[in-house]
Each structure stands twice: as C-alpha cells, then as structure tokens.
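Sequence in, structure out. Go.
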Amino acid sequence: MMMKMPWRRKSRSFHLQLQGAIGTIQSPFLFLFTNYCHSSTSTLKNARFFTNNFKSASFTRLDDAIASFNHVIHMHPLPSRVHFNIFLSALVKMKQYHTVLSISKTIELLGISHNIYSLNILINCFCRLHLVDFGFSVFGKMFKFRLEPTTVTFTTLINGLCIESKMDKAVEFFDDMVARGYQPNVYTFNVIVKGLCKFGKTNLAIELLKEMADRGCEPDVVTYNAIIDTLCKDELVGEALELFSQMRNKGISPHVITYNSLIHGVCKLGQKNQALALMNEMVEQNILPNVYTFSVLIDALCKDGMVSEAQNTFNIMIQRGVEPNVVTYTSLIDGLCISDHFKEALDLLKEMVGRNISPNVFTFNILIDTLCKKGLVSNAQNIIKIMIQRCVEPNVVIYNSLMDGYCLCKQIDKARKVFDLMVTNEIANIFSYNILINGYCNRKMIDDAKGIFDEMSHKGLVPNAVTYHTLIKGMFEAGRPQNAKELFKDMCSHGQQPNIVTFSIMIDGLCRQGNLDEALTLLKAMEKSQLKPNVVIYSSLINGMCKVGKINDAKELFSSLFEIGLQPDVYVYYAIMKGLCQEGLMDEAYKVFKDMEKVGCLPNNFCYNIIIKGFLRHEDLPKASELINEIVDKGFCADDATTELVVHLSRNNYLILRLLKVLARI
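Output:
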C-alpha cells in the first residue's frame, strides 16, 4: 500500500510542473536548445569530438558541454537515457543546477523517457536550489510512472529538507522511509547527523550514531567528523576526544578534517600542548597537516602571547611546503602587534603581499588599530589610503579605531569629523558613540558628551552599560553629581541592569563628593540585588569614610574584609593608611604598612610616599629615613609632595638635609 505523502502534488502533468519550476528559477538556458540550428558545415572531426566529449562527460567548461549536447541531440539514433544521465551528472558536479533542469526539459521533449536515475538527478538539483517542494513533486510522479524510489531518492530529499532548515520534516521523512521498508545507508545517516549537528541537536546525533550499528549500518569517518566538529565548536572537547578514541578503536582512520576539528577545539580551551600532541600524532599517522591546521595553532599561540613559538610554527609550515594564506598571516600579524613588535608585523605584511596574498579587512583592522593605540594616527591614515587603493573597503571597526586614536591624541575635533562622516554614511554603531562620549568626557567637555548621548535616542540606538558608565563617571569628575544620579536612574528605568562596575562608579563618585550616606544606601541596594561588593568598592568606601572624618568606621570596615574572606589589595591598604596618617595615628598606619608584606601584598610607590609623608609631618625622622632608604633600594621614587615636605623641614635639621641628598639621587 502506497502511503499518501503531504508533499505530493496533483492535477498537472509532470512536463508542466517541470516547466513551472524552470520558470520559477529563471534559467538562462531555457530557450537555448530550441533555437539551435545544426550546421551542415560541421566537420567530421568536430562531430567525433562532440560525440566523444558528450559520452565521456570529460568537459570542464559549460560552453563545451552545451556544444556537445547541441551536437548529439541531432544524431540519429539519439544517445540512450544512460548517456544523458551521465552527461547530466557531470553538470551537477559542476554545480550547474539550472542548466540541468533546462536540458532535462529538452531531453523530455525529444521523447526520451525518464528513469529513476534521471528523476533522482532532478530532485537533487531542486534540493540544491532550495526548491525541495519541487523535489517532492518529482518524488510523487515516480509512483505515477511506476518507478520505485531508491535509498538515494530518500537521502536526496532528506538532504534538501536539511538545506532548507526543515529539520523536523527531515527526521519525519527519515522515519517514513524506514516505515516503507527502505534501508537507510551510511550516506542517509550522515545527512541526518550533519543536519542535527548543524541545528544544535548534537545529543540526538550521538544517539543516532549509537543506533546505526543496530540498524545494520556502520558509521564512517564522515559521521564521526560531523559530531566531533560540533562538539569541539561547543567546547565539549572531552566528549569529542572520547568519540575520537571510539572511532579509532573501531578501525576507522581519521582524516585531516578530524584532527583539525580537535586541534581547533583544544586551542579554544587554551590546551596548546594537547594541540601540539595531536599534530605530532597526525604526522606519525602520515596525515599531513594543512594550512588550516597550522593557522589554528599559530592563532592560538599568538592569542596566548607565545609569538616566538608562533613564528617557529610558521617557519616549520613553510619548510614543509604548506603555503600560508591570509588567515595565517593575519593571525601572526595580530600576535606581533599585541606583543609590541610592530616593525616585524609590517615586514610580514610586505612578505604577504610579495607572495600575492592580498590582506583583507581584518589584516588592515589590526594594523590600523595598533597604530591608533600608539598615537600614530597619521600613519594609520596612510594605511587606510593603501587599503582603499587595494579595493578593500574600510569598515566601521576601522573608523572606530581612527576615532579612538584621535581621542587618545586629544584631537577631539578630528574624531568628531570622522564620527559625523560615519553618521552620514549610516555606519556609526554603539561603539562609535561610546568612543566619542569617552573622548569628550576625558577632555572635560561634558555637555558635548551629553549631546552625543541624547543624539543616540534620536537615531534609534539604545545606550548600553558602557555608555552609561562613561557618562556617569564623566559627570562625577566634572563635579555634577546630580546629573550622574539622574543618569543612574535613567539607566535603571530603561531596562539596563546595573552591574558591579555601575555600583563601583556610583559609590566612588558619591564618596569623592563627600556623600557617604548616599554611597552606603547604594551599597545596601547593591547587596539586595545579590551583587557582592569587591575590593574596589570597599576601597572607595574607606576613602569616603576617611574623607568625612569617620576613621573608626573606616577601620571597622577594613577589619571586616578579613572576616568575610576578602583579601584587601594594595589600593585598600593605601586608603586606610592614608586615613590613619591624616588622623595622626602613625603607629596604626605603620602596623598596617608592615602587615601588608606579611599577607603577600607588597606596598607600592604610593604606599611608601603616604607613610613617609605621615612620619615627616609628625617629625619622626628616623622612621622617615628608614623608609626613604627602602624606597631607594626598591627603585621607587618620592613624589612631589614628599620632596616638598622634606625641603620645607630641611632648613633647621641636619638629618632632613641628609634625607634630601638621598632623595636627590632617586
């Protein structure tokens, strides 16, 4: 009993349906064959050439294929359906799907009947052209022509459904195939497995892999590759390696693709030694690493700052005759730029061009961003000119880098010109706005920054956390705490959830303005939102307490950090020492100073200067002298305030004069 399929179509002849399909895809070859006129002047030599070319399907150019076809359709007798199928299959391999459909129509008009193989070819073409419904129309006509579908027919249609992202229907049709008594082969399973992996259903793909043997079909390397690659992309490398071992235990030899997936996976997790071991294993198995293998490894080494190792790998790659591509060069150039070897990066760019490998937009992005971060904006502009000359269009990332470079060089007007150009060309994004807002805030041009912020809403752009953080901090630094608080409320009301950075900026800003009570209220709100304060926030609060003379509260808060298991950093220690020194509690300050080293937190230059100034102000010259000598030994230097204090006290004190001479040598 033949099951009714939901994809079958009725009422129109197969010829009309095919004609409709070809009309839908607007084939350029639709009328090519009907207007053909066979030339009587064709030589016998040419005739033999076209005939042999058609029968052997040895053509490599479409024009030759068409010429051969136009010749043989005027032969008597006509070639058999078998020869036409071989010819059509060759065109399919050339991905000339439209042409196959047009030629197939012409063959039908010549009176040559379809067989199962020709209809499978048509179904494949429709599926490749994302016209799987037409493929099912052909499938329906097979039964009308009393032709029995094959496993190839079902596999091709399942693949078509996967191509069109109709995964549920693909699985349904697979089940229908089995219910009809057809045995799926490894190619059928591979199509389903690939589809499931593509749409994130890896667990189902693994289940299907386990079921294959039960259904009398052993998986092959393609089956394993699909699942291993997906697991690696999902950073489930452990599971991928287990599957890899299972594959080898079954006697299935891995391909270079298998190893590449695993190497890429372990590199993403920072397991470079594992990646190198896999590459060595490849070589031992006589599987030669290709450009992808080397590029992945070079990129991973560069990202981990191991640029020398990446260069060595690059040299080995060249020695083995593997030609680097644009990805290889771009990764290595990126690594050299990050490690501050810009000259070597430029040399590599020249080598790249010398090998006729064109830099792409990512290569230029890296170079321009590096130059801009170094403040060499004019050099970056020259690179952009070269980029345009090479017909590589600068993108929003490059313009953002240029803007950032101008802001770093305090050329805010030039940054604004680039920004305006981007807005005019409708390529400015949230990062563009954030860069300019930050530039204005750094230049204390807070009204201009707010103007850009307001412009965002008019352009339909939603400010993100970085936008709010930058502007809130700018408002506090400009002495406008009320505006900062309004922005914080605006942020919350527009669905932007404050994070640890938001609270850190707000609490620090309020403490610096002397609004300790508001800062403590915000701390409670933060704790209610399940966010734990970090040492940065505690440092701000201790500073704020000391600023308003609440030294006991500051000491209590400092002590509580140890109780809650939070290790103070050098900035927290500096904050409490500064407060203690200001209150004249030098013994306590000195004890905190000494305790730092005991817990492994080494005092920095600021810590030394604050404690030295405290002792100098209280004329404890022996202690000041001892610490100044320590400064010299550790390679630190006295700041201007410390030096000025020493000069002031030196007028009537011999010991201070001696300290002044020591400071002069720092």
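Check: The first helix runs from residue 14 to 25. DSSP finds 37 helices and no strands in the chain.
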